[in-house]
Structure formats: structure tokens, C-alpha cells
Amino acid sequence: MDLKRRLPILRWSVWRMAAGNRNITTTGQIGDGREAAAVEYVLANARAGDIDDVLATIDKFAYEKSMLINVGDEKGLLLDAAVRRADPALALELGTYCGYGALRIARAAPRAKVYSVELAEANAANARRIWEHAGVADRVTCVVGTIGDGGRTLDALAGEHGFASGALDFAFLDHDKNAYLDDLMSILDRGWLRPGAIVVADNVRIPGAPKYREYMRRTQGELWNTVEHKAHLEYQSLVSDLVLESEFLGPASS
């Protein structure tokens, strides 16, 4: 593997990303225009209608141009496998960014309707362009909002997009790590997850979601069956990360 790929500190875009960490929490973007540049790169270089090529082109941009904060190629394989196990008809992603995660879900589950909730309208616009180029815009939808906005986004998912009791087969958490547990609880409160549904959570070690991890450990064998997958932070092989894959066993009996 190329040394710059393995060691992120050798890549200038990583240092720019570190400087833009504050932007990520408020705007959903690094702040140097890399997300819009990634879209233009995909449209210029990836074959239209070819999901595989679009994903490979995003990965190439992240390695050779500017680091991106989507799940990436290594952890993406874990996501793919979990999606295939769930075989969803309805899938939910929290945290759209450039649309990469939803695209992997759509590829692994070609019969699924995929909904991705995103805080930033700019990210939603970028993702929609990529999905259109990949040929999946008819079954991948971005909903601008947050699960923690007092119920507005949850109500929109229910009222406009068919989310109902037991209808949700798969969820991917890749947004604000501090919101993982609260947002999962909100989804559980709605009763959307069917028994056997799978929830995948990225970046559980870095930046970290300790409350979410502790909850999954505490409810192991009762509400959830969780496997912790060791991996690396996206687009490098120096910093370790964890991906949690949790099967919902069903609501606790009263």
C-alpha cells in the first residue's frame, strides 16, 4: 500500500480536515470545499449509471485528492455484509455527507428503499447529484433534518415516507456520535425496528460513541445481539476504529 494511503499524517488534506473539525459539527462539511470538489470529480470521472464505478471514484478522490469522512472502503465492506444479512426492504441512514454510505446500502440491497437523514442542505444537494449519476435516485432519498429536532423529521419519515411499526429492516448510524444513543432510542420509541433488524454504527472508537457502546453491552442478549468489528479509521491503516453491528431481538417483555 502507498505510504501516504497508510499514514494519514503525510497527507495535507488530513491537516486541513483537522483544522476544520469545528465546521463539521455546525455545517456537516470540512469547510474547504472538498465535498463539492468530490461531486465534480465523480461526475467527471465515474461512468454514469455504474454504482461500482461511482463508489470506486469517491474512494480514489478520498485517497488521492482530499480525505473524506464517509465510512470508506475498508469499513464499507462491513456495512455491505450487514446490509446483505438484513436484506432490507426499508433502510435508514443517519448522516448523509456526500451520499457514499447510502450508495453502498443501495448497492447491497437492490430492492430496498433507502432514506438518509442529513442536517446540512449542502450535503443533501451533493448527495443527490451523486445518486443521480449512479442511477439510484429513484430509490434513495435524502430527508433534511435531524432525529433530535423535536419529532419533525420522525413525523416526516412516518407521514411522507411510509415508516411504521415493524417496517424498518436496517439502520446505519454515521452522524453526530453523541447523538447515536438518543436517536436510536427515538427510533425504538416509534416501534419502527422489526425483530431481526440490524443497526450498524460507525466510528464507535474514533471519534467515539461510548454511551452507545455501553448501552449495547448492557443489553446484550436481551434487546440486542451485538458484534464489535475491529477496523481502521476511514482511508488509512494507522488509526484503529470500531464498527458495531447489532441485531434487534425485539422489545423486552413486560
TrEMBL record:
<keyword id="KW-0489">Methyltransferase</keyword>
<keyword id="KW-0949">S-adenosyl-L-methionine</keyword>
<dbReference type="InterPro" id="IPR002935">
    <property type="entry name" value="SAM_O-MeTrfase"/>
</dbReference>
<dbReference type="GO" id="GO:0008171">
    <property type="term" value="F:O-methyltransferase activity"/>
</dbReference>
<dbReference type="GO" id="GO:0032259">
    <property type="term" value="P:methylation"/>
</dbReference>
<dbReference type="Pfam" id="PF01596">
    <property type="entry name" value="Methyltransf_3"/>
</dbReference>
<keyword id="KW-0808">Transferase</keyword>
<protein>
    <submittedName>
        <fullName>Predicted O-methyltransferase YrrM</fullName>
    </submittedName>
</protein>
<dbReference type="InterPro" id="IPR029063">
    <property type="entry name" value="SAM-dependent_MTases_sf"/>
</dbReference>
